[in-house]
Every structure is written in C-alpha cells, then in structure tokens.
Amino acid sequence: MTERKPPGVPFESWVDKQIRDAQARGDFDRLTGAGEPLPPEIESTYDELWWVKRKLHREGLSVLPPALALRKEADDALAAAYAAPSEHLVRRIITEVNVKIRDMMFKPPPGPPLGRKPYDVEDVVRQWRERRTAAGGGPVN
Q1: Which of 41, 42, 64, 124 might form a disulfide with 68, Cβ 3.0–4.6 angstroms?
Q2: b/e code 14-48 from CB counts within 10 Å (16+ = b)
Q3: Which residue from 67, 81, 73 is spatially nearest to 114, judged by alpha carbons?
Q4: CA angle, 32 as apex, 38 and 29 as ends, to 5°?
C-alpha cells in the first residue's frame, strides 16, 4: 500500500476506507492464524526483547539471573526440608543450600542482589519438628 492520505480527509476515515477496500479485494482471506486469539506472549506495550521472550516461551525455557535462581532454589529447599521424612535429610538439604548461599554472598554475581542469608539449620529443624508434631507425624529421628 503506497497510497497517501489525501489532504482534508480525516485520518480515521481514510484508514477505514483502506481496510474496507482490502477486505473487498480479499487481502485478509486465508491469513495464518485467522480467527484465533493472539498468542499469550504478545503484550500491549512494546518490549525490545519480545523475540527473545517468544523464543524462550516456544522452547519451554526459563532464564533467571543467578541470584534470583538461587533465591528460588533456597525457597524450594526450605519447603523440601519442611516436607522431609527425617531430621537427617532436613539437615542435608539446608546445609547444601547454605553452601550455595554463602558462596553467592561472598562472590556476588551480576544482577540483582540475592536478598537471602544462610538458614539457621537448628531453627529449621526445630520448625520441622513442630510442623511434624502438629500434623500428627511419626516419631522424630
């Protein structure tokens, strides 16, 4: 479409006419995705990394900065510790994640700050015991 809007014609009606003419010619018939909703990754605001996000979504990938990934891992480890069947496993889970947290605290990666400190193993074990007792769990070992 190389035609220019004639002077004195309101822009909206000129655009509407162009669309009506294209529809009459069948320019919109059999377009890919016709009648389907827009993909969920398309947002109303412009994002210069739209193509990266679309590729990651299509490939089923997720990329977090190292600090945010460790923050999520720490939260998941705490939840796993609370659900652990034995005190030994609680201690192992928390000790392993604490090593990673301490490493990141002393060697900060690029990106946002971690915002976490190592968990107190004894405090997590105490809470684990309390939760287990409250839930009617078996003996604590």
Answers
A1: 64
A2: eeeeeeeeeeeeeeeeeeeeeeeeeeeeeeeeeee
A3: 67
A4: 110
Task: Show Cβ contacts of residue 77 under 8 Å, excluding neighbours closer than 6 positions.
Answer: 93, 94, 96, 97
Residue whose entry in the numeric block shows the structure tokens 């839930």: 135
| Phi, psi (deg, nearest 5) at residue 71 | -60, -45
Identify the CA nearest to 119 among candidates 82, 100, 89, 94.
Answer: 94
Which tens digit of pLDDT belongs to each residue from 61-105? Answer: 777 788 888 999 999 999 999 999 999 999 999 999 999 999 888
d(CA 141, CA 126): 12
pTM for this one? Answer: 0.48
